[in-house]
């Protein structure tokens, strides 16, 4: 599910402007030259007014151009979504269906609520069926605020009429995909292994690429989320930092968990290496513990990659971490959410979940009282900012439910609590047997 989410969101903002631009050019070519000049003149006059005009004031043919452009951009996104699903999962689209005795059908819906649009991918054979429901242009136009209009005017007024038309089109496109995060990044579950072997993997690929066409070479198959992660790490620039307020989170992990510093160093050839610094010296991440190599990419992403408004998909943050370390990381996650980072995480950890619950419950308490109980103000997490999903296996597949997040209780821990109770009862039974007379 995390991979599907990444496939659906990671390329939307990157490709949406190009998709809209292509669609706009195609639609604009179909109108007569005199109408094109009239449209440019109309919009130039509209841009001189500080107030956003009503859509009813636009010439009908111009409204049709923008409506066709948005429809075409959304259709193109729906088509490219299937390719991105294959790339992200490393699997042909037909292989994403559940394997059972009978042939199953898979259906994926990507839904935007404001503005309302929907993309559907249905997989019933080797070739997927793609459909979409476009938003109303009136609804998209209503989402452009006066502040947005001022920004478009500042960009567009000095330019010619055709550029003005395109600038407004870009703003409509941005409003259409307003619910999509600015950027989506993925931290896969196998971080420690990838960090300890990423130079070997990439080195093998580079060496093999020189033989392409000369002899048959075996290229290791990696999923798109893994190759994106490796590519992100390899392309990090030591001289560029995010400057989005996440540096403190990186420092906290280094100080409170790693008890050392993570460094990204580069040579004259542009090769980078991740080093772990302690009082004993500098060590390549490949020679460190799994805990260090697990958290090193988290530190690097906070320091060099992530920006406010981004989505970070974080698989199993508790992997290879001591329970005490999991608690520190959970607090860090709460702080990052409060600082404007969107985080989707998967977890099997009762400790991690309980700390998040404590952060949620503390938000309903007096700030000073919460601090006395060890919950700092920036760790408190409002229940309205958290959504939870429970995945449970069944005879027909995995059932996903959305339990309510209660401000006074947090996220329900039904399955974790049941296992803890079973272990406790077993321990009590064992003690009774030991204490029983022979």
Automatic annotation (TrEMBL):
This is Endonuclease GajA/Old nuclease/RecF-like AAA domain-containing protein. It comes from Streptosporangium lutulentum. InterPro entries: AAA_GajA/Old/RecF-like (IPR041685), P-loop_NTPase (IPR027417). SUPFAM superfamilies: P-loop containing nucleoside triphosphate hydrolases. Residues 286-352 form the Endonuclease GajA/Old nuclease/RecF-like AAA domain. CDD domains: ABC_ATPase.
